Amino acid sequence: MMKKVRLALLVGCLSIVASLFFLTGTTSANQKTNLLNPSYTKLNGKKVVDWKKTTAKKYVDLTNVPAKDLKIVVNQKHQTVNIYKNNKLVEQFLCSTGKRTKETATPVGIFAIEPEHGTWFYNAKPDVAEGARNFVSFKDHGVYLFHSVVMNQDNQPIMSRQGRLGHPNSHGCVQMSLPDNVYFYNTFSQPDKVGTKVVIEPFSK
User: Fold this and answer.
1) Does the active-site annotation cover 147?
2) In terms of DSSP H, where are the helices of the chain?
3) What's the CA gap between 61 and 65, in Å, rounded?
């Protein structure tokens, strides 16, 4: 009897895994992996993730990989950007998604890398007054972006907004450390990467 119960449980678990794979194309987006390697620094007396250094172990060259073979999964629960090649996780780094309010939340759902990109922008509105480097759009053609940590009008990091990688900290975009942002931009700003699938997961997943 116990063997039958164990077998039934095993079959049930495999069915759940198969369902997850069917829905998302992967089973590991939610799982912590060994692809992260953040450095730390002190800011206002606190130990924080260093926004000036990579949070990945290494960068994988995806230059010649077509968009159809790639997928970007933003895990808001763990605040990570996860890049898949043929449904295998090949790159991962920390990020900051939108603060958990109605006005600043990062939209959840399935999107795609869009043509809009650039090396710099600045929003001078008094209630924003910040910009970022190396942006790539994934929703509403220039509204929701992947980009660097936030910058002032002189294109320098706004210190009061640093030290939050790994925590929600944006107005809805996905922020990355300076080196991770350069890698992401160099990879996904290319014309052949337009259409790359982007999945933004909810905090609960």
Assistant:
1) yes
2) 2-24, 178-188
3) 9
If you compute the radius of gyration of the chain from its CA atoms, what whole number of angstroms results? 18
Tell me the per-residue pLDDT of 169-191, one tens digit each, with 9 for 90 and over: 999 999 999 999 999 999 999 99
- Could you say which of 78, 117, 147, 171 is catalytic? 147
Known catalytic membership, residue 13? no
**Secondary structure in 3-state letters for the chain:** CHHHHHHHHHHHHHHHHHHHHHHHCCCCCCCCCCCECCCEEEECCEEEECCCCCCECCCCCCCCCCHHHEEEEEECCCCEEEEEECCEEEEEEECECECCCCCCCCCCEEEECCCCEEEEEEECCCCCCEEEEEEEEEECCCCEEEEECCECCCCCECHHHCCCCCCCCECCCEEECHHHHHHHHHHHCCHHHCCCEEEEECCCC
**The one catalytic residue among 95, 117, 171, 173:** 173
Give the integer Cα–Cα distance in Å for 176 and 169: 11
Residue 1 is encoded by which pair of tokens?
């009897």
Beta carbons of 120 and 130 less than 8 angstroms apart: no
The 10s digit of each residue's pLDDT in 35-91 is 999 999 999 999 999 999 999 999 999 999 999 999 999 999 999 999 999 999 999
